[in-house]
Amino acid sequence: MPRRNIIFSVLLFSSFFIYSQSNPAARRVYNTQKVENPPKIDGLLNDDVWKMAESQGEFLMVEPGDGDPISASHETQVKVLYDDEAIYIAGILLEEYPEKIMKQLTQRDNLNQSEFFLVDLNTYDDGENQTRFIVTSAGTQADARMTGNNEDYGYNVVWESEVSQDNNGWYVEMKIPYSALRFPEKPEQLWGLQFAREITHLNSTYVWNYVNKSVGEMSQYTGLLKGVKNIDPPVRLSLYPYTSVASDHFNNNSDFNFSAGLDLKYGINDSFTLDMTLVPDFGQTAYDEVELNLGPFEQVFGENRAFFTEGTELFNKGDLFYSRRVGSTPIGFNDAQSELLENEEVLENPDRTDLLNALKVSGRTDRGLGIGFFNAITNEEVAIIKDTITGSLRERITGPVANYNILVLDQRFNKNSSITLVNTNVTRDGHYRDGNVSAFLFDVYNKSNSFNFAGEAKMSNVNLPMQNETGFASNFSIERTKGEFRYNIGHEFANETYDINDLGISFINNYNNFSGGVSYQIFEPKGNYNTYQFNLYGQHLRRYKPDLTVNTGIGGDFFAMTRKRFAFGGNLGYNTEFRDFFEPRVENTFITYKPFSDMSFFVSSDYRKQFAYDVRISFEEYFNTSHNNFNIRLSPRFRFNDRFNMVYEFQYGNQNDRPSYVTQLDNKVIFGNRDQKKFENAINANYNFNTKQGLNLSFRHFWSTARFVEGGFSKLEDEGNLLSFDYQINDENNPDANFNIWNLDLSYRWQFAPGSEAVLLYRNAIFNEDKLSYLDFSDSLDNLFARPARNNISLRIVYFIDYNNLKNLFRG
């Protein structure tokens, strides 16, 4: 069948799931009005202009109960006004015992244990995409882009807010300029609107427009803001010039760097925004939590670069975008060492690729069509290789100039459903691999939001110097999404050539998996519990080619939280034998692990108290063997006062006698029984002078050893079994490992103007890896401190420039 006919058939199939969606009958409406003299944003609410505004209250509980009216002692009133520049919101939040109001000082986007007032604005009233604005009782701001129930706090815009408090409660004023929003240009705006109030000391949350938690998502239960008329979307142009200086000292070598660049946001029209970064500097991003990785897959890290986390909800559709691919290790990094000629050594080999520039365009039309385009270009990286006899130098390109692109079309309909087309591609200059992936996605609810039908069809194309490979993957699920009792079934498939790893990340392919589950949960408090949930699940994993069973597993988990905010839960599962096709590192070869059971349990105490803790314990036991795995994580936290908070985390893991890959020898795959243990200590402490200035300490020490049992080596047989093998260990082929890493960041952050900040950072890092797996913790730590430490101090200043303010300044 021609490709265009396949796409047409899929689109036709999806149309059978399209239903009309009527607004909830009880949807509340707020009618605002325009003012000539806006209120002063000082948190006092004493401007006469507020008397013109309609006051609405009657908030209803959303957590932990369902629809209970707020008590008179905590009555909450909201008011909304607008002018040609912004929308203005006031909140009056009464409190019978004002001394109980929790107001912990935090920095932007960190709510911690403060009470807060929340506003959701959906300027297209599409039931999914909205912008969230939060002000805490201490005055901290938080903002996020919402897609369904997913919050993206990487999204930051410039707006104003202030709070005040007296013996009757606390008050908030907000000014949200139109430059911080996207909305269609039309005579009257009809915006989805929701207010919420978190009363932390009462462990309760109330909303203005009722939310039925047992059906659909919270974003589908906004009220309606009416009366905003004849406003023109402003020119949305913001500039973020930055400058940074850094001094780096390592192994008796010092380096001083100065850099400057620019981030830009431009509203192309009323719906779409261009984000661009020129000469980006990521020197102050948080360190990666690196671990000893002896498995067949790369370690996955979270994204710490703001450009790649802010406003990326469209680009994450279909899980095809792993942003760490952009600027990662050059594709030919290892080739520089493996392709050395006789008497050659590598002098330089960069392990990171420089990002030259990146841009993204995203937005949504008033008909619900979301469009996203992403582009990034990375520089060429070169290894310098020296001939040790002649002294001559040669260059080896390890990373060519590369161009990364993403295009997304996402059509929303019925205020609860969407269909999406995604394409990603990576083009590299020269004779290297290129990658292209296309996907069709659908996420459809029926009219009553009681069932969800979701699916994906993805096609990958990898262009290699000598051949091209095309792969395909799909998944489909049906889920009951209404009521206390729910169930789901699903299927996942990928052929043996499916590969999205040029811009995405996928560890496995060649599978044909089935899954299902049932669950029960409550939406109103019962007895001593605010909520609890039970789940039973099962899965059957199969290999696509050849068609054989990989694993079958069943299990259950539970979660509960008491009225006093003490949470606990756990899981218990059983799995049949598992055929692992990736641990051997040889195509179409597998090792068979014995049947095993796994269990875990956790408790989490009330974070509102000055001292709180989290404990999680997990254990795996493989039957008829000595192979097992134990892990424990302890995380106590202490709030010294409203300014100073500290969290300590300790993790210990111990794995015994795991059959693990060692090497390949004369076409034999050699395995050994490996004991591995790990210790991790981490501290995160914050001291905030106010909501604009604060100190942060982030520390992590991770130590792990892997030791192969003497005489425990074997070779892998054809059917996945192991046969004892006499493998001799010497200094060159010793597979043991001793891994030690230390990171410490101490930073001072000052938001000296709206959208502008200065960050002073001191960084200390030490790393050591060797074969001395027999060392104890103390001796290994001594070896670590004997290594040279990298000390870095940097200052980065970013200044926010708004075109509209600049224009008015020149007019003045």
From TrEMBL:
Alphabetically, the GO molecular function entries are: carbohydrate binding; hydrolase activity, hydrolyzing O-glycosyl compounds
Question: Biological process (GO) annotations?
Answer: carbohydrate catabolic process
**Superkingdom:** Bacteria
| CDD domains the record matches | CBM9_like_2
- Report domain Carbohydrate-binding positions: 41-196
Query: What Pfam families does the record point to?
Result: CBM9_1, DUF5916
SUPFAM superfamilies linked to this entry: CBD9-like (SSF49344)
Q: What residue stretches are annotated with the DUF5916 domain? A: 233-810
Tell me the protein's name: Carbohydrate family 9 binding domain-like
